[in-house]
Amino acid sequence: MPHIEEIVRKAKEKAYQETDSEPDPSLTTAIQWPVTCEIGPGLEDAITCESKVGYVNGPKGWLIYCGLDTFDLSQKSSFEETAYLLLYGKLPTLKEFEDFKAKLSKYRALPSEIEPYLERLPIRENHAMTGLRTLVSILGMLDPDADDTSVEAQTEVVIKMIARFPTVVGAISRIRAGEKPLAPDPSQSLAADFIRMMTGKQPSPDDARVMDICLILHADHGINASTFASMVVNSSMSDMYSSLVAGIGSLKGPLHGGANEAVLHTLEEIGDPAKVDGWYEESRAKKRKVMGFGHRVYKAYDPRARVLHPLAELLSQRDPEIRKLYDIAEKLEKLVVGDLGAKKGVFPNVDFYSGIVYAAMGIDKAMFTPIFAVSRVTGWGARTIEYLKNNRIFRPQDVYVGPLRVEYVPIQERG
Ligand code: ACO
């Protein structure tokens, strides 16, 4: 698939050309506690910890995992290798990688005790992320080592979950389609097998490689809401399953991982490239946020969207309906960036083009956010374990703005 690698290489070239003039990276020197920083609402710009896992530079549009540029990882690595990198802080040797992949293969199948839950839980009737949250919680109940909070045991849980999330999400997708879940095939790459378990069809090599890139690009992204949620839960020395369940719960929301599904709803609602202008005008008049645009950190083009945009274009060529969605997206991007790019730093984020990529693979939009979780479990795990090594329970402050010393009035005397 040299054309896919070439697409990623060109995306990197473009990104670097456009951001060359940006200032040097900030937030890369060791913290001297207590730290002084200016904090906005929603903990904007608050510094939580030091990390060697990943680095996001908004103005430059950089996303780096353990020193490696995600453009390079997308072009040259695999999701399995990237997961190793995030967990252990370095690229594996051949032997280390073989051992890691063997472990992932061993863990891919779900324990048989989960089967009655797959059959009886109302998975079809609920949001796919609700199904994932519940099933991961059950997997924790079925794991005798779940309450071992040592770094070694928690790392093992994360590896198990990196292997099992695709199987669980595959099962949810099949059950939602009224089909029986499929067993994993460990002879295939995690990305290829993941598509097969979701759709019931063996993916083309191109689709498998594009999914691999999607999983690489979504694996880690600083102290985002779901990663922070995972870290906060584990900082009480709870357990890794509770931590991952918190991450899933947070990712579900439309302001975070849920935006990829919302984007497709938007594109379908617009329905025609000719209707984009009218739709956007109305949207602005009603002061609605356009899903798939804007980011707390990137006030420039999100590097992940730079890769996903041309990949969406490539895959959309196979189906006129998907091509139409792509054309609507492109037109909408031009309008939003023209209007809010320079003014507010609003550009497409990772979620804007990912939905088109997944739709082109024949994946139901209800599964888009769970796909995100299949990848992000790596970042949740890597950062939670890194924090655990130097753990201090999270405990920020609030400012009380309510009344002080209100007199207690007995219930019978209240008006
Ligand atoms: N559409 C229109 N205007 C926007 C958008 C958008 N998508 N995003 C930001 N803006 C505008 C805001 O209205 C605001 O304008 P104002 O100064 O006139 O009030 C300004 O840009 C700053 O936006 P905030 O909402 O303050 O930025 P914040 O950092 O709090 O929010 C967020 C970031 C939540 C991602 C926001 O951009 C948004 O809601 N986007 C749509 C949902 C989305 O795509 N989420 C996925 C994010 S990526 C991820 O989580 C994986």
List its traits.
Cytochrome p450-Terp, domain 2, 56% helix, 2% strand, single chain, Citrate Synthase, domain 1, mainly alpha, binds acetyl coenzyme *A
Blueprint (SSEs and pairs):
Elements: H1 2-19, E1 54-57, E2 62-65, E3 68-69, H2 70-76, H3 79-88, H4 94-107, H5 115-120, H6 128-141, H7 151-176, H8 190-199, H9 205-217, H10 225-234, H11 240-251, H12 259-270, H13 276-285, H14 303-316, H15 320-344, H16 350-360, H17 368-388
Helix pairs in contact: 1-2, 1-14, 2-9, 3-17, 4-7, 6-7, 6-11, 7-8, 7-17, 8-9, 9-14, 9-17, 10-11, 10-17, 11-17, 12-15, 12-16, 14-15, 14-16, 15-16
Bound molecules: acetyl coenzyme *A.
The site of acetyl coenzyme *A has 19 residues, from helix 15 and helix 16.
If you had to describe this structure to a student in words, what would you say it looks like?
The chain is mostly helical and 415 residues long. It has helices at residues 2-19, 70-76, 79-88, 94-107, 115-120, 128-141, 151-176, 190-199, 205-217, 225-234, 240-251, 259-270, 276-285, 303-316, 320-344, 350-360, 368-388, and strands at 54-57, 62-65, 68-69. It folds into two domains: 78-253 and 364-388, Citrate Synthase, domain 1 (Orthogonal Bundle); 260-360, Cytochrome P450-Terp, domain 2 (Cytochrome p450-Terp, domain 2), CATH 1.10.230. The N and C termini lie far apart (74 Å). A three-stranded antiparallel beta sheet has the order 1-2-3. The chain is globular and about 70 Å long. The structure holds acetyl coenzyme *A. Acetyl coenzyme *A (ACO) binds at residues 42, 255-257, 259, 289-296, 340, 344, 346, 349-351. Residues 42, 255-257, 259, 289-296, 340, 344, 346, 349-351 line the site of acetyl coenzyme *A.
